[in-house]
Amino acid sequence: MNDFTRRTLISSGIATGLAATAAPALAKPAAPSGAPKPWGATPSKRQLVWHRRERYAFIHFSINTFTGREWGYGDESPDLFNPTDFDPDQIVAAAKAGGMTGIVLTAKHHDGFCLWPTKLTEHCIRNAPYKGGKGDIVGEIERAARRAGLAFGLYLSPWDRNHPEYGRQGYIDYFRAQIVELCTRYGELFEFWFDGANGGDGYYGGARETRKIDAPAYYKWPELIALVHKHQPMACTFDPLGADIRWVGNEDGVAGDPCWPTMPNHPYVQSEGNSGVRGAPLWWPAETNTSIRPGWFYHADEDAKVKSPARLIRFFDESVARGTNMHLNLPPDRRGRIADHDVAVLKSFGDAIRASFATDLAQGAVASASHVRGPAFAASKVLDNDRETYWSAPDGVTTPTLTLDLPPNRSFDLIRLREYLALGVRVTRFAVEAEIGGRWQRLATHDCIGAQRIIRLPAPVTARRVRLVILEAPACPAISEVSLFRSVAPIAVAPPASSDPTILSPRNWRVVTSSAPGANVMLDNDVSTVWTVPAPTATPVSVTLDLREAFDLAGFSLTPARHPEKDTAPPRGYRAETSTDGTTWTAAGEGEFPNIAYALATQRVPFTAPRPVRYLRLSFAATALPAARMAIADIGAFTRG
Ligand code: FUL
């Protein structure tokens, strides 16, 4: 870190939110007298508000939507950005159907194109055909979000592959001016997202070169974070050291179990990020993100690969239920709308969650506890639906038990526990037990309650009594809520076939030669079957495919394994050659797959020019990360649009 460290931020009160304006959601009552002292790190005011957001949407929409890429190079013409039927209310309604409480929009992705009419660059919507250059996607989505009662936040890529000054001070001045514009033009922001992907090759005003930067020294994150907070005191910043929230360490929507909101005071380490570190000094909670589709941007060839409602429930269980916030990406299509199938999935998922948590079956129970700190901290406080009150025990009593005597016939399979977060994460380990048919049974044991812990039982139980047993804690607990629910399964939504006629199905293709057996699994359109081969050393891994008939091919696609096995990695780049007769070959292009190792997204690679192709040969000279084996799930191809 630079001289201006996270600790400096804390002592100046910026990171703790002391400078923040009051948040409506947290009109804070005075602490009752005799309250326990906080233990360990505690959240700032803006972090406390953020912890209650639970679910919000990411919207990736930009030039990439129109080029089919995941990372634009920065040389794309603004002419490409032209949604034919942009409907911000439809996008926001889709998010709301899924139970999202906010929207975070990509104001600028790595390619540098700005979705708002800024005077800071020509590479922006002012020069796009959309609304004759008078459009403002950021403003239109912001207003739609507010109309629907959703909070609004922004993603601004620090890496800018368009800007000529990227890598030099001139770009930092520009980036700071962008932050100020976005923080002052669009009302209150709840989140400001700085992407971790930084530096590499790009257009850079025509230089077309590789620019590597030392991110902490170049960006001076604490200064940028302070700049956001100066204008937006309640916006939680994501993700460098010093920010309010951290990355969960994967883009697959899986938080660790447990997922502690605390982290050491050093730059982010991916292995620590997934589970956090118990008792560490920084309150730096995880946000768990993934996309409803394989890619972050919309691609028609992924229409049949949208996550199912049941898969979104699993995402909920692996994020929200582990005390983190769920950040679900919903990419608008080239019309500027969320595709119908994605909307149906969101509605099914949202309805299931709403129905599951509609009736708290713990209501009406009589609460008692082995130890109570005093009347203001009675056991009944866990049932009063007030997150500002809590049950607590006297100092020194760290393993008390709380029992709910339930009304008859309460059958439940979801148990939701919440700590009173303002006093820190106090419970290290706990169990939930139930008295069923006259016998006490242990239903579950976990580390960490935190913002919330939702336990899903394999089947509903009908219990006479339920108890929370604190097994280990460094201080007396402070439990604000205990609730019981009966889950409602989502309605299944049948996936559509791909709607894009330019996408070729590889199912009939044939592997002519390959550097290892089993390459045909890359042609089955099933991402769960993976071709795994020894990583290339001197000779590249290669595969030659016969498409069985000649096509006017515009490019190929490659999907990495979505859940790579240990010690495997996708290819770093490719070399493509084509042939009409299987004998004479011509080069069709070579390059790197951007972000493949981390996003694990389908790569769509246009050839230098469309060409007649019967045979396609792909060679891969290296893995994207050091690994003993290379893994590829699918290969496909597309014709001219
Ligand atoms: C990553 C980016 O590189 C992806 O394109 C996407 O924006 C994701 C949310 O973050 O780091």
TrEMBL record:
<dbReference type="InterPro" id="IPR000933">
    <property type="entry name" value="Glyco_hydro_29"/>
</dbReference>
<dbReference type="InterPro" id="IPR006311">
    <property type="entry name" value="TAT_signal"/>
</dbReference>
<feature type="compositionally biased region" description="Polar residues">
    <location>
        <begin position="577"/>
        <end position="586"/>
    </location>
</feature>
<protein>
    <recommendedName>
        <fullName>alpha-L-fucosidase</fullName>
        <ecNumber>3.2.1.51</ecNumber>
    </recommendedName>
</protein>
<feature type="domain" description="F5/8 type C">
    <location>
        <begin position="346"/>
        <end position="468"/>
    </location>
</feature>
<keyword id="KW-0732">Signal</keyword>
<dbReference type="InterPro" id="IPR000421">
    <property type="entry name" value="FA58C"/>
</dbReference>
<keyword id="KW-0326">Glycosidase</keyword>
<comment type="similarity">
    <text>Belongs to the glycosyl hydrolase 29 family.</text>
</comment>
<feature type="signal peptide">
    <location>
        <begin position="1"/>
        <end position="27"/>
    </location>
</feature>
<dbReference type="InterPro" id="IPR017853">
    <property type="entry name" value="GH"/>
</dbReference>
<feature type="region of interest" description="Disordered">
    <location>
        <begin position="561"/>
        <end position="586"/>
    </location>
</feature>
<dbReference type="InterPro" id="IPR057739">
    <property type="entry name" value="Glyco_hydro_29_N"/>
</dbReference>
<keyword id="KW-0378">Hydrolase</keyword>
<dbReference type="InterPro" id="IPR008979">
    <property type="entry name" value="Galactose-bd-like_sf"/>
</dbReference>
<dbReference type="Pfam" id="PF00754">
    <property type="entry name" value="F5_F8_type_C"/>
</dbReference>
<feature type="domain" description="F5/8 type C">
    <location>
        <begin position="486"/>
        <end position="637"/>
    </location>
</feature>
<dbReference type="Pfam" id="PF01120">
    <property type="entry name" value="Alpha_L_fucos"/>
</dbReference>
